[in-house]
Each structure stands twice: as C-alpha cells, then as structure tokens.
Design a protein that fits this description.
44% of the residues lie in helices and 22% in strands. By secondary structure, the protein is α/β, with parallel strands linked by helices. Helix 5 runs parallel beside helix 9.
Length: 399
C-alpha cells in the first residue's frame, strides 16, 4: 500500500501532463461546426459549444478577439473557427480558444426551424389578430412543464410575490428528449378538459441549448399551442431563446419568472390603486356633501323657507286687493252701462209707435201683419186687427 502511494501522482500533475501533451500535439487548426448554447456575458467574452452530429467541444472567444469579429455568433449558426486547443485545469476539461471565426451558413436544426417557421407563418398561425388577450385577474392557471424542473419553482415563487388568490395546477410533461413533444401535446389537451376551465395555460421550461429546447419547435406542439381554446403563455428558456412555440402562443414571456409577472397582477400596485380610488371616492363624497350643504344653506336663507306663511299672507292680501278692485271696476262699469242704456231707451221711446198709442192713436194691420195706411187695400169682409195702447180689436170690414 505504501509502495502504491509513492508511485501515485496528484490530479494537478496528471492534468498538467495532459495539458502539456495535448497543447504540444495539436497545433492551431480550423474546426467546422454548429454553434449552440451561445453565452455573451457582460465581460465581453463569448462562450459557446461547437458541435456536429456526433460530438461537441466547448469554445471560447476572448473579448479582444470578439470585438473584432465582423459578425454576431448566434445559436444554430454554422461557423469555421481557427484556434488552439487548451486544457482548462480547474475543471479538467478542454476547449478551443478561438482566434479567428467566419460564418459558414446555418446548421441543420436552424434550417429545420426556418422551414417550419415559414410554413406555419404562411398558414397564419403566428398572426397577431388571432391571439387572445389574457384575463386581468386569473383565478386558475394550468402550468404545463416538468414537475421536477426549476421552471416550476421560479414560476411559483414569482406568482406568490405577485398574487396569492389563484389556483395553480401543474400538468406534468417532458420538456426535453424525443418523446417530449407527445407529452406536451397531451398536457395541453388535458388542460382544456379541466373543469372549471383554467383562465390561462402556461407552457414553460428553463434554459438550455437549441437541442434541449427543440421539442418546442416541433410541429405538433406548435399547432397544439396555436389551437388551444384557452389563452396561452409560452416561457421557454432564457431571454435570448426563441422557439416556434413562443411565436404561436398568445403571449411570449422571456423566462418562467417573467411568465408569472405577465400572468398575475401586482398585488402591491393593486393595493395602491385601491387606496388611490378610495381616497378619490372619499374626496368626491366630501365635495358632494359640502356642495349640498352650501345649497341647503342658500335655500335656508330664502324667505320662502325662513317664513313660509309670510308669502302666503302677502299673496292673500294682494288677492283681496285685486278682488276689491275688480268689484269696484264691475260696479263702475255697470253704472256707466245703466246710464248709457237709459239714454238709449229714452231715445228709442221717442221713436217708438207704442208711445204714440199711449196718446190715443192706434195701428191697423191686415191678416199678414202689414200696416194699413190706405183704405183701398182692403175689401168688404176682410179681417183686420187694430192695436190700441191696451190690447187689440179684430174687425171685419163692412164698407
């Protein structure tokens, strides 16, 4: 046992030997592959994985080289990289330190992504006018994701901070692998069969490479999201990750935490709004009461309110005065009329034949009531009437 201990080397020594052999064996060389899992931290360095169908290698472009690149390295892009193999002793891994890079085209997955995107876009699955609005205060949320993933924790924590009066149902689904697409489609269908129906369906998972997220670019999943009768939110990967599921959903969230922020209202903002509305309501009520009090005070100062009988007495006195004036006017008018009538009667009396009859005269008329002024108009046997001052006499003409 002691002999073996004497012959053993430390991990650092072994890694140092590997580093020396590898870096001396492989001179700088060009490597072709597809860039995935691209990360661009604030330091300015670029970290990514260079892969093909059978293998992959980690690569790094230091800031000094990255600033001189004439293009941006994106996920799914096929590139040619010139650099030196380097062993990273701290982790015991090796990587390609890129000194030069040039675009080669797009990778196989990126080509498939663009082809399906163009097809579904032509069908209108990504049109903005077909997207449904999310309810402002959802009560029931269906979360389609892996129950053991970090996305569930992130979503629930953010939801707890935003809103507490909601029911969140986790519908299990695989979010990575060859069979993941089928489970996601089944989970979305199950969410639509729930009763009572959820207000929102959230499809989510954490970050990963293009391959890890590829199940959310498969056509059955994209169509299931687009055809879901419930408003959908897609929160796949990180901010830089964009899937076809994001384009088909009614709302795209950058992360699971952002999805909770988009779905649930901010309880602090709602409290402030309620408080503000309460204060505005109280101010409005106080202003209304003050206005009514001013109106009531103005009414109370009016005579009709202070002394309601006074105006009645004034009106009664005025009515009596008008009655007296009307009686005097009527009496005066009748007296004038009587005097005028007496004058006219006196005038008529002088012209009346009845006045002549009172002095002994008479008027004789024939049977038709016509006055007889000539004896030649009557004949023997005619009946005539003579009107006297008092009564009348009927006679028959003899001669």
């Amino acid at each position: 046992m002691s002999d073996a201990s004497g012959r053993a080397v430390s991990v650092s020594e072994l890694t140092g030997h590997i580093k020396a052999v590898m870096e001396a064996t492989f001179p700088p060389l060009w490597v072709a592959g597809e860039a995935t899992d691209v990360a661009k931290p604030r330091s300015g360095h670029i970290y990514f994985t260079l892969k093909d169908d059978d293998a992959q290698i980690r690569a790094v472009i230091w800031r000094g080289v990255a600033t001189r690149l004439p293009f941006d390295i994106e996920n799914g892009q096929a590139i040619l990289c010139y650099g030196q193999l380097e062993v990273y002793s701290v982790r015991g891994t090796y990587q390609l330190v890129v000194r030069k890079a040039q675009p080669q085209g797009i990778g196989t997955l990126q080509q498939a992504f663009l082809k399906l995107q163009n097809k579904l876009n032509a069908e209108g699955l990504f049109d903005a006018d077909r997207k449904k609005p999310l309810p402002s205060h959802p009560k029931r949320i269906a979360l389609v994701t892996s129950p053991s993933g970090a996305a569930v924790h992130d979503f629930l924590v953010a939801a707890q901070n935003r809103w507490v009066d909601a029911e969140i149902l986790v519908i299990p689904a695989q979010v990575q692998g060859n069979t993941a697409a089928k489970t996601i489609v089944r989970a979305i269908a199950a969410a639509q069969r729930l009763r009572p129906a959820p207000d929102v369906v959230v499809v989510t998972r954490g970050g990963g490479s293009l391959e890890d997220l590829w199940c959310f670019n498969e056509e059955p999943v994209v169509r299931a999201v687009a055809q879901c009768t419930i408003p959908t939110v897609s929160a796949i990967g990180h901010e830089v990750d964009i899937t076809l599921c994001d384009l088909a959903a009614d709302l795209r969230a950058l992360t699971p935490t952002d999805a909770a922020t988009r779905v649930f209202p901010d309880k602090s903002s709602l409290r402030r709004r309620v408080d503000d509305l309460g204060q505005r309501l109280h101010r409005s009520i106080r202003q209304s009461i003050a206005q009514r009090q001013m109106q009531l005070h103005a009414l109370s100062s009016r005579p009709i309110i202070r002394k309601p009988l006074e105006i009645i007495h004034l009106r009664s006195r005025h009515l009596d005065e008008l009655d007296q004036r009307a009686l005097r006017a009527m009496t005066s008018c009748m007296q004038r009329s009587e005097a005028k009538l007496a004058t006219v009667a006196a005038s008529l009396s002088g012209l009346s034949p009845l006045d002549t009859l009172s002095r002994g005269y008479s008027v004789t008329v024939d049977e038709q009531g016509r006055a007889i002024t000539d004896a030649q108009v009557v004949q023997s046997g005619d009946v005539i009437t003579t009107r006297l001052h008092q009564g009348s006499v009927r006679s028959r003409v003899l001669d």
